[in-house]
C-alpha cells in the first residue's frame, strides 16, 4: 500500500487524539504568550472546523466504500458458482466460456485492487479479497491463463 494511503488510514483512525493534542498545545502556547482571547478562539474554531471536515470526509469515504463493496460483492456473487466449478473441475483445457468468465473475474479483481491502492477499500477488506483471489488463481488451470493475461499489462498491476 502506498505511503499516502497508509498515512490517510492512520490519520483517520487517530485524528481525535491529534486534534486534541493540537488544541492543548495551542492553548498552552497562547497562554504562555499572553495572547488575547480572540486569538485563542480563532485557533479553537479552526481546530473544530478541521474536526468537522475530517468527520465529514470519513463519512463520505464510508458511503463510497459501501457502494463499492456492494457492487463488487454483487458482481462476484454472479460468478461465484461458475468459478467454483472451474476451480474444482478436471485438469482439462479451459473452454471459451470458462476463459471469458475468468477474464471477467480478473477485471473485477483489477478494479478492486485499483480502488484499494487509491485508498477507497479498507486494508482488512482488501486482505480478505486478496486471499480469495490467490486461492482461485493458484489453481493450475487458472494460473496458466492468469500469467498469460497479466502479460497484457491490464488489471492495474494486480499482484497475484
Low-confidence stretches: none
Helix-residue proportion: over 70%
| Mean pLDDT reading | 91
Tell me how many strands there are: 0
Contiguous helical run count: 5
Radius of gyration computed on alpha carbons:
24 Å
Order of helices and strands: HHHHH
Class from secondary-structure proportions? mainly alpha
Distance between the termini: 14 Å
Strand content: under 5%
The biggest beta sheet reads: none
Q: What is the 3D shape?
A: rod-shaped
> What is the number of domains?
1
Structure description:
- The protein is mainly alpha-helical and 160 residues long.
- It has one domain (3-157).
- It is built from five helices and no strands.
- It has helices at residues 3-32, 37-88, 96-117, 123-137, 140-150.
- Helix 1 (3-32) packs antiparallel against helix 2 (37-88).
- The longest helix has 52 residues, at 37-88.
- The model has no long low-confidence stretch (mean pLDDT 91).
List keywords for this structure.
81% helix; mainly alpha; rod-shaped; 160 residues
Topology:
Layout: H1 3-32, H2 37-88, H3 96-117, H4 123-137, H5 140-150
Short description:
The chain has five helices and no strands.
Amino acid at each position: 500500500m502506498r505511503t499516502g494511503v497508509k498515512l490517510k488510514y492512520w490519520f483517520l483512525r487517530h485524528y481525535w487524539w491529534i486534534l486534541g493534542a493540537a488544541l492543548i498545545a495551542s492553548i498552552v502556547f497562547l497562554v504562555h504568550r499572553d495572547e488575547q482571547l480572540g486569538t485563542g478562539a480563532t485557533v479553537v474554531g479552526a481546530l473544530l472546523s478541521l474536526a468537522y471536515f475530517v468527520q465529514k470526509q470519513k463519512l463520505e469515504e464510508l458511503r463510497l466504500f459501501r457502494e463499492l463493496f456492494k457492487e463488487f460483492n454483487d458482481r462476484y456473487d454472479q460468478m461465484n458458482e461458475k468459478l467454483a466449478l472451474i476451480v474444482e473441475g478436471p485438469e482439462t483445457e479451459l473452454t471459451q466460456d470458462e476463459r471469458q468468465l475468468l477474464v471477467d473475474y480478473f477485471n473485477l479483481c483489477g478494479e478492486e485492487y485499483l480502488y484499494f491502492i487509491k485508498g477507497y477499500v479498507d486494508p482488512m477488506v482488501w486482505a480478505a479479497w486478496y486471499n480469495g483471489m490467490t486461492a482461485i488463481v493458484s489453481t493450475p488451470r487458472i494460473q496458466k491463463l492468469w500469467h498469460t493475461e497479466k502479460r497484457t499489462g491490464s488489471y492495474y498491476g494486480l499482484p497475484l
